[in-house]
Design goal:
Radius of gyration: 24 Å
Number of strands: 17
Strand order of the largest sheet: 6-5-7-17-8
Number of domains: 3
Largest sheet: 5 strands, mixed
Number of helices: 9
Strand content: 25-35%
CATH architecture of the largest domain: 3-Layer(aba) Sandwich
Distance between the termini: 45 Å
Helix content: 25-40%
Shape: elongated
CATH topology of the largest domain: D-Maltodextrin-Binding Protein, domain 2
Oligomer: single chain
CATH class of the largest domain: Alpha Beta
Length: about 300
Amino acid sequence: MGLPGRIDLNDLVVFDAVATCGGFTAAAARLGVATAKVSVEIGRLESKLGVVLFSRTTRKVVLTDAGQTLYGECRPLLDGLTRALERAGSGKDELTGTLRISSTVDHATLSLAPALAEFAQRHPHLAIDLRTSDRIVDVIDEGIDVAIRLGWLRDSSLRAAKLRDFEQFVVASPTYLQRVGYPHQPEALTELDWVALTLLPTPSTWKFSSASGETKTVHVKPRIRADSLGALRALLQQHAGVSVLDEFNAREGMRSNQLVRLLPGWSLPGAGIYAVYAPGNQVSAKVRGFVDFYRQYLGRPDSAPVAA
């Protein structure tokens, strides 16, 4: 589509992606095209406008003054155009394009992947790109439409929607407890073999609250450390010690008699499952559709999301 002055609208879309993502490679990942194509289209736009839009170095890409002006004026217009197109197609429940989702490996295996399989069946013209990692990915740099994160959010520059709350339980295997005895107070945990999840910001400090309002902070000494929830769960089920699991993993272990919940009169801080988006004004129809679906999916009695 051409604009007055023979500017292709697609060039502006590419320009917006580079400006938002802060780089050509990240913009290419978001758009689903080659980095070389992004570079060519930006060069073509700069040539037609007669200005340099980005200052390029070996380490980063930064908007020039002219680029900043163009971005500030085009961003709301592109958002408005996207909303207009979505309103025009609002009479149909058809999602298209590619939905790029990020999640931890364990959560994807136990909850997100089954949900995506069902979502894909409902929207046969939508391509899905599921990326799993136990590290926190940069949704902008890696072109992610929505990241599913669990626990407590720390990056205030991102937008997030809470999908569900979950509790945390202290658990151990019956075999391990038969060997060392059952703790009756939170401070007794310091005498047991603690298995720490190093993904947590403070894996050795836990704050407990009782129904009467009493609070106790316990500093445990980890004997074993694990950097994934799957490894932590396996260690506990093999009688390696004591640790904290989300309520879904804990109850699954309890149903199979592989784990026992400890200190039922004490509770740990709750956490949440979140859908996280890049900053900006517009959330696409495919992202909104999936987030609404996944929130309902997590609310089903038979769903078993896993926290990290």
